[in-house]
């Protein structure tokens, strides 16, 4: 199987009234002409053969070659890199595709599949895009790689930069990143810079910093990140036997992931690897839902034909799902295109819905971080609203590992989780997230009798509990 020739790949501006084209190795993040987002286009996709691709990708699952062990580079025909690119890899991807019967029942579905991106090397989906972005940094000869982050991008970049022996600086909102994620960045040796401000402030500052040529920005505004992340859609479809599911549901923050899934599905469809597109739905947390608000406005406007087309940023986004506490998502235009092209929906869910859905994913023995659980909460809503039928084939993408935010979990299970909505007049009690499915630890006397007594009483409570969900 010959790889796709990269001579034909280039960076394109996505704005239809611009469409400017740039070389692959021009160090750009947005279109210099109009400021639009850039995207990589690979003209040679159209000539590749779908069944040959499927068989080469199947064969590589059994190959010991380092490139083939990566769930990103295994699909290298779709990537804009030459065969001798200096790849920086931690064997990312290869993430499990689980049946989740308890979560399915909770959503009133016959079956629900969970694609667990939290099982990547640094515990989040960011690794699938970081392997390509840091490889590109090496190709460009960058001295320093940087990102702004709510925690996961930072942890991932820190790890890949360490592998590539590149200097790495990450900019994070002080006090708003979970300990697990911060600990990773420190351990991987990144320069950790904390600012007083939120993610959107950090993003603005880091973009200014990246105007300096020696600094390479690897947030998802960088189109090479999206190229790696789009392979998650490919791996998912391979795990589905190339039968596209009816719905794929993602959490939405900065919206790079939604953009990447949209690109992955579209490319596979155009190649003939799949014969239809799944509907792509994006779920945000209610206090940080500028994209859901835009979508709702468009739904209201559409009969008149003058759909709202601009996102209004939220100045002070609020959610305990800190990964997606974002008010001005950079990739909203790409994400909107993906959602509209696949007849998807964008919605938001409450803090209570997120917390309960998260606990249910845990009960399947799988677990995830809070932002990831927006998907299951969103699916429950979409089933209720009749958008998803109970026998549809549905996949929720879990983006981060359960241990990324242990404090949140301990607080939920001890009925000690509160929203941060301090600006409102709500009392502390009103801000409490109910531990609907809580499972608090119990202090017991260190005797066999006390422990057996407790286990017996716990057994009967557990049976009652099961009847409820
Ligand atoms: N889920 C998790 C666990 C995340 O860390 C993020 C984003 C998202 C979902 C949303 O993905 O931004 O592509 O829409 N985290 C970024 C970070 C912002 O800095 O780690 P998105």
Describe what you observe in this structure.
The longest helix is centred in the C-terminal third of the chain and has 21 residues, at 448-468. A 6-stranded mixed beta sheet has the order 4-5-13-10-11-12, sandwiched between helices. The chain has helices spanning 50-60, 66-69, 101-106, 126-140, 152-164, 179-187, 199-209, 223-239, 256-271, 290-301, 332-341, 351-363, 370-384, 406-413, 448-468; strands at 9-13, 21-22, 38-42, 97-99, 113-116, 144-148, 167-173, 191-195, 215-217, 247-251, 279-285, 346-349, 394-398, 417-418, 432-433. It is built from 15 helices and 15 strands. Helices cover 39% and strands 14% of the residues. The mean pLDDT is 94. Helix 12 packs across helix 13. The chain has 469 residues and is α/β, with parallel strands linked by helices. Ligand F0G binds at residues 124, 126, 149-153, 220, 251-258, 323-324, 369, 371-372, 399-400.
What descriptive keywords fit this protein?
469 residues; four-stranded parallel sheet; 15 strands; globular; binds ligand F0G
**Ligands, deduplicated:** ligand F0G
Largest sheet: 6 strands, mixed
Query: For the residues shown, what is the average pLDDT?
Result: 94
Task: State the strand order across the main sheet.
Answer: 4-5-13-10-11-12
Number of strands: 15
Assess the beta-strand content as a share of residues: 5-15%
Overall geometry = globular
Radius of gyration equals 22 Å
Topology (SSEs and partners):
Blueprint: E1 9-13, E2 21-22, E3 38-42, H1 50-60, H2 66-69, E4 97-99, H3 101-106, E5 113-116, H4 126-140, E6 144-148, H5 152-164, E7 167-173, H6 179-187, E8 191-195, H7 199-209, E9 215-217, H8 223-239, E10 247-251, H9 256-271, E11 279-285, H10 290-301, H11 332-341, E12 346-349, H12 351-363, H13 370-384, E13 394-398, H14 406-413, E14 417-418, E15 432-433, H15 448-468
Parallel strand pairs: 5-13, 6-7, 6-9, 7-8, 10-11, 10-13, 11-12
Antiparallel strand pairs: 1-2, 1-3, 4-5, 14-15
Helix pairs in contact: 4-5, 4-8, 5-6, 8-9, 9-11, 12-13
Bound molecules: ligand F0G.
């Amino acid at each position: 199987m010959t790889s796709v020739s990269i001579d034909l790949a280039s960076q394109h501006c996505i704005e239809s009234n611009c469409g400017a084209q740039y070389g692959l190795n021009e160090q750009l993040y947005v279109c210099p002409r109009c400021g639009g987002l850039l995207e990589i286009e690979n003209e040679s996709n159209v000539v590749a053969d779908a069944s040959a691709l499927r068989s080469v990708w199947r064969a590589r699952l059994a190959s010991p070659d380092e490139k083939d062990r990566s769930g990103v580079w295994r699909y290298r025909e779709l990537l804009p890199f030459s065969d001798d690119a200096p790849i920086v890899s931690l064997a990312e991807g290869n993430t499990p595709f689980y049946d989740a019967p308890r979560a399915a029942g909770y959503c009133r579905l016959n079956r629900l599949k969970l694609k667990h991106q939290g099982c990547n090397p640094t515990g989040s989906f960011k690794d699938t895009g970081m392997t390509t972005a840091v490889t590109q940094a090496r190709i460009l000869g960058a001295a320093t790689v940087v990102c702004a982050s709510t925690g996961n991008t930072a942890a991932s970049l820190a790890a890949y930069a360490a592998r590539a022996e590149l200097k790495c600086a990450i900019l994070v909102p002080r006090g708003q990143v979970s300990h697990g994620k911060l600990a990773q960045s420190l351990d991987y040796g990144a320069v950790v810079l904390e600012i007083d401000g939120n993610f959107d402030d950090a993003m603005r500052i880091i973009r200014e910093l990246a105007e300096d040529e020696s600094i390479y920005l690897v947030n998802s505004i960088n189109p090479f990140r999206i190229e790696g992340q789009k392979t998650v859609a490919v791996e998912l479809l391979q795990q589905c036997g190339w039968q596209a599911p009816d719905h794929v549901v993602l959490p939405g923050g900065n919206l790079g992931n939604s953009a990447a899934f949209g690109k992955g599905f579209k490319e596979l469809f155009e190649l003939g690897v799949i014969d239809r597109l799944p509907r792509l739905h994006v779920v945000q947390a209610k206090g940080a839902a500028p994209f859901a608000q835009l979508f709702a406005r468009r739904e209201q406007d559409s009969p008149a034909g003058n759909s709202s087309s601009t996102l209004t940023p939220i100045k002070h986004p609020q959610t305990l799902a800190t990964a997606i506490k974002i008010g001005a998502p950079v990739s909203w235009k790409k994400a909107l295109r993906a959602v509209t092209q696949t007849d998807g929906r964008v919605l938001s869910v409450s803090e209570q819905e997120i917390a309960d859905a998260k606990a249910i994913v845990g009960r399947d023995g799988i677990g995830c971080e809070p932002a990831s659980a927006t998907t299951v909460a969103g699916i429950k809503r979409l089933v209720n609203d009749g958008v998803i039928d109970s026998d549809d084939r549905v996949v929720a993408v879990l983006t981060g590992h359960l241990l990324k935010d242990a404090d949140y979990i301990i607080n939920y299970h001890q009925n000690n989780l509160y929203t941060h909505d301090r600006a409102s007049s709500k009392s502390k009690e009103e801000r409490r997230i109910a531990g609907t499915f809580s499972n608090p630890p119990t202090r017991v006397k260190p005797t066999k009798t006390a422990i057996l007594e407790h286990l017996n009483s716990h057994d009967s409570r557990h049976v009652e509990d099961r009847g409820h969900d």
